[in-house]
Design a protein that fits this description.
This protein has 394 residues and is mainly alpha-helical. It contains 21 helices and no strands. Helices cover 75% and strands 0% of the residues.
């Protein structure tokens, strides 16, 4: 559900104790770096200091939602509402939780309240976002006309709301109004030209209109950004086949078949996580499947869920460290590798990886020290010696 992650309100701290305020700041900092386990611990400490402070319970809701602990998140947001019914954003967040529980009528009521009481200078979300989520709830209740009306309102309220534009495009496409659908899909793409989903949807509309010369570049761009996009691979194969480029077409259709099998396995694994969300192994296997697919961002999310169940698992920490390196998030990698080394400083491979993470951030002296630790454990390690030589450390 969009619009529900990491948007906590900037609190009014006049009545907050210095200790609680400090804990809140540290909690927010942990949320900002996606370290939800540390954030949860800090929020618990803040709640013990000042249990009547709504900001604490709000952050607990944000943390629990990101850890997929939806019942806990809902209880936290309801506590905020009990303590302060006019707390900025509370109706919006309660609406998101109700949506996730598939209680769409309750979500509608919360979103309407969020829109009616909207205060531009205080709310941690945009009014356009609230209209968009309201439309999504209408769509789930099979009320397409109402959904389309509020999608249009979202776009009127914020002309850069690309998701509202693409939702309008989808509605027109379902009615067979391809020209209108393409107009709105192109509008979304102009706002977010790097969005592979929007690239695909524009390509699909050109394909439906029989314009393969326009469709093919869109599919190719979508695949460059998201190689595991099954639909783009399949439709590109079909478009190339229509142009008589059979060899290229067969390559993409074969790739689509492979992806179809991988995605079917991911669906099964996701079902297991829904049925037994407290089983660490389910989340680990899901993360592994996403990694094999090539979707490192989703692999990371799955492994973070696994880590929330087993915070001290060194294998999870190591996998997350390497995923963050591949995602160009070296600061997070450093945090994971250092946690491992605090538990076992004899792991030379982790020291080697830590050095690479430090090097990515430009912290060359720290990188050299990490590689020296590798040589202290295994003096013959050629990789660490080569890295030290390249960095001027030998």
């Amino acid at each position: 559900m969009p619009g529900c992650r990491k948007q906590p309100h900037e609190s009014q701290h006049a009545q907050t104790s210095p200790e609680a305020y400090s804990l809140l700041q540290h909690t927010q900092a942990a949320i900002d770096r996606n370290d939800y386990l540390s954030a949860a611990s800090l929020a618990d400490s803040a709640a013990r200091v000042d249990p009547a402070l709504p900001e604490i319970h709000f952050l607990r809701g944000v943390i629990s939602e990101n850890l997929n602990r939806l019942s806990t998140a809902r209880s936290a947001y309801e506590k905020v509402y009990q303590l302060r019914p006019d707390y900025p954003g509370i109706h919006f967040y309660l609406g998101n939780i109700q949506f996730k529980f598939e209680q769409y009528r309750s979500a509608l009521a919360q979103y309407r309240q969020a829109i009616e009481t909207y205060r531009p200078s205080e709310e941690p979300y945009s009014k356009s976002r609230a209209y968009l989520n309201l439309g999504l709830a209408y769509a789930r209740l099979d009320k397409p006309d109402s959904a389309l009306m509020v999608y249009r309102q979202a776009l009127t309220d914020d002309s850069t709301n690309a998701e509202a534009a693409i939702r309008i495009a989808t509605a027109h496409r379902e009615e067979g109004e391809l020209d209108q659908a393409l107009r709105y899909a192109l509008r979304a793409l102009r706002t977010q030209p790097e969005n592979p989903d929007y690239q695909f949807q524009v390509g699909a509309l050109y394909f439906q209109q029989g314009d393969m010369s326009q469709a093919i570049p869109c599919f190719e761009q979508a695949i460059r950004q998201m190689p595991w996009n099954y639909r783009a691979q399949y439709q590109l194969g079909q478009a190339l086949m229509r142009q008589g480029r059979e060899n290229e077409a067969r390559q993409h259709l074969a790739r689509a078949d492979t992806l179809k099998g991988q995605l079917a396995e991911i669906v099964k694994l996701e079902q297991k996580t829904r049925m037994e969300p407290s089983r660490m192994l389910h989340w680990f296997n899901l993360g592994k499947a996403y990694h094999e697919l090539g979707d490192e961002a989703m692999a990371k999310e799955s492994l973070l869920m696994a880590l929330s169940i087993d915070p001290g698992n060194l294998v999870l920490l190591n996998n997350l460290g390497h995923i963050c390196l591949r995602l160009d998030q070296p600061d997070e990698s450093i945090s994971y590798f250092r946690k491992i080394l605090r538990a076992d400083s004899s792991l030379s491979e982790v020291w080697l990886s830590l050095g690479l993470a430090y090097a990515q951030t430009g912290q060359i002296p720290d990188a050299r020290e990490a590689w020296r630790q590798v040589l202290a454990i295994h003096p013959a390690d050629a990789r660490a010696r080569a890295f030290l030589q390249q960095s001027g450390g030998l």
